[in-house]
Amino acid sequence: MRRLFGSVRARATLGATLVVAVALVAAGAAVLLSLKSNLMGEAGTQAERSARAVASELAAGTPYGKLSGLDGDDGPVQVLAEKKRLVAASEDLEKISGTDSDRVKPLPSVTPRRDDDDDSDDHEEEALEPGEIAGESTFSNGSATIDGDTQDYRFAAVEVETHDRGRLKVYAGAPLAAEHGAVQTALTVMLIGFPLLLGVVAGVTWLVTRRALRPVEGIRREMAAITASQDLARRVPEPQTHDEVARLARTTNETLAALETSVERQRRFVADASHELRSPIASLRTQLEVAAAHPELLDLDGAVEDTVRLQRLAADLLLLARLDAGERPGDAKVDLAGLAREAAEGRTGVTVDAEPANVAGSRGQLGRVLANLLDNAQRHARSAVTVSVRREGDLAVVGVADDGDGVPESDRERIFERFVRLDAARSRDDGGAGLGLAIARDVAVRHGGTLTAGQGPAGGALFELRLPLA
Q1: 35-181 belongs to which CATH class?
Q2: What is the second-level CATH architecture of the domain 244-324?
């Protein structure tokens, strides 16, 4: 049971069924009340019509024994005189309730005394002229037994002022059997129809949610298969719709693509790092083995050079690892102009044109960016490298330009990839490991900036570092 109602389909079906059930109960109650009220009103109208017909005969002086409404065909009738004395009643009336008198047999007629203030029970009666019928009627519910048949009735009471018999009150009843029958029939229909309708709603909701969630189940199965196979090249199916499920599938595929790129990048990084480390380690081992066998042949300068290169490569790899791990830069204020002058100090052919520009970040990492850009520029320049620092709006822009051959437009993004060298024939000793520009861009991005490559004024490469001002 817990597993069943743990599904979206089951919860959606249960929720829809409960909402419809509450709506049906409320609507059914309103219909029953309205039906009962209307039928009660019709019965009251019928009873009032019968009571006024009898009252009209009494106003005209018709004797009690000749009243046409006492045959009992239209319902029970009572005529009450003052002090609730029953003076006329329907034939075969055996029992009655809901009127001012429960008597069924008339009492002997008594001439009323008009000068007696206590003869009347109602001291606020409507003033009527002899032969006049009261305009208002009162209603009540009760029951009556006529010739052995007991039914519920709606009674209407009408007062009439007679010429010789004083104030009389006529009670006439209309049967409520039709009202009871209609309400009972409607209730029976609801008790049978509502569960069937709820079953239809539950079934339709179950099928609709199943159809709506089928793509989600397909996405789940495919994701489970991808997890089991570890094949990040696979993609989940995208439904040909424009709803939330389709957007979920597209977002999932975008995530898988980004994950595949990240994993592939990590694999290449590990493979390239292993390859780059293997060369200086092998060279250093060879030199040490030769030195061990023939000390006079030891190339000390070469060993030191390989050791330094290995140290730099290890430092670059450690920095990239920290950047990939999400290391956040500091928030210290760094003067890019002063940092550019420090990076250019002692370098041949490098000129600096800088205006003050402060940014927030890590002084060490930003210094590494400038050093890498200058190393790259000097490696490709013919004679001169220019460093500029300027402010553009809310950005600080650092430009490093050389007068070399420049970077082809098609390679201006590829050079920022790790272990990429555009000149494959160039020796590793001259060209480095291909990590400098990759590190520079990663640091720039971590500082909320950008690093791009373009063409410089002298025709060589121009690298521009843009960072938000502090």
Answers
A1: alpha beta
A2: Orthogonal Bundle (1.10)
